[in-house]
Amino acid sequence: MRLADPRRMPTLFHGSRFWIEASEAERMLAALPLRAPPEWSRFRTAQQVSESTITNAFRARLPSGDAVYLKRYVYRRPQWRYLLRHSKALREARGTSAMGRVGVASAEVLAFGEWRQFGLLRAAFLVTRELPDTVDLREWAVHQAPGLSGQQLERTVRQLGGAVVDEVRRLHRAGLAHRDLKWRNILVRQEAGRWRCWFIDCPRFTGSRFMRRRSQLLDLSGLARGA
Q1: Is pLDDT of 195 > 70?
Q2: In what order do the strands lie in the sheet with 194-199?
Q3: Are 102 and 174 in contact (CB under 8 A)?
Q4: How far apart, in Å, are the Cα atoms of 104 and each of 85, 177, 198, 222?
Q5: Is-contact 198 105, C-beta < 8 A?
Q6: Contact of 178 with 202, CB cutoff 8 Å
Q7: Residue 11 — left, alpha, or beta (φ > 0 → left; ψ -120 to 50 → alpha)?
C-alpha cells in the first residue's frame, strides 16, 4: 500500500488513526510504538535529533538496519487553527507525495498518524526514511565548503546551485510550492561526480492556486536569505 493520495484523506474529527507503508509494517512496528497515541506521543527511547515545546524528532533503526526519522507534534492546549483542517504532519505527507509525483526528489514517507478530540488536534506524527550519506545545504556551506580551494569551490557551487535551481523550477512549473525552503531543508549528496538534492520538511507545502505566485516567491526568498 502506497501513501494513498493524501488529498483524498478525509479530515479526522474525533479519535485517532495511523497509516503505515504495508511493506515496512512489521519492521516499523518492531522498532516504533505507532499503534496508539499514548505510545507514540510519549515516545523517547530513540536518538533525539531536535526538540522544541511542540515538535520533537527522533532517529531510530529498523531491524533491517535502515534508519528512519519520527517527527512528532504534541499540543498541550487546544489547537483551534487545526479545527477541521489538516495537521502539519498530514500536510507534509501531502507535500512529499505531490513532489514525488512530479519528479522532485524528497524523503520517502513510511508512516503517519493523528489524534483529535472533537475536531481539536492533540498530536500527530510522520515517519520518513533516512537519506544516507547526505548533509543539509547549511551544513555543507559551514563545514565542507571552507575546505575547498578557490576553483573547487566555484565549480562545486555552480554544480550545487544548478541542481537546486533545476528542482525548484520543476516544483514551480508543476504549480507547487515548498514554502519553507531554507538551507536546512535541502539535503545534498555527490553521486558519480554530480550533485543531487532532496527537499524535505515541508509542513507549509501548498499546491493551491490561491496566492501561488506569493508562495513561489517565498521559496526563492528562503534560498536567497541562506545565500
Answers
A1: yes
A2: 135-136, 186-191, 194-199
A3: yes
A4: 26, 11, 8, 18
A5: yes
A6: yes
A7: beta
Mean pLDDT, all residues of the chain: 91
Q: Which helix (H) or strand (E) holds 139?
A: helix 137-139
Residue 226 Cα distances to 132, 182, 219, angstroms: 23, 7, 11
Q: Is 32:70 a contact under the CB 8 Å cutoff?
A: yes
Residue from 16, 69, 59 nearest 39 by CA: 16
Backbone φ/ψ region at 124: left (φ over 0), alpha (ψ -120 to 50), beta: beta
Let me know how long the chain is: 227
Residue type, 207: G
Residue 141 CA to residue 70 CA, distance in Å, equals 26
Claim: this prediction has a pTM higher than 0.85? yes
Tens of pLDDT, residues 121-146: 999 999 999 999 999 999 999 999 99
Q: How far, in Å, are 126, 140, 197, 217 from residue 135 at the CA level?
A: 20, 6, 10, 25
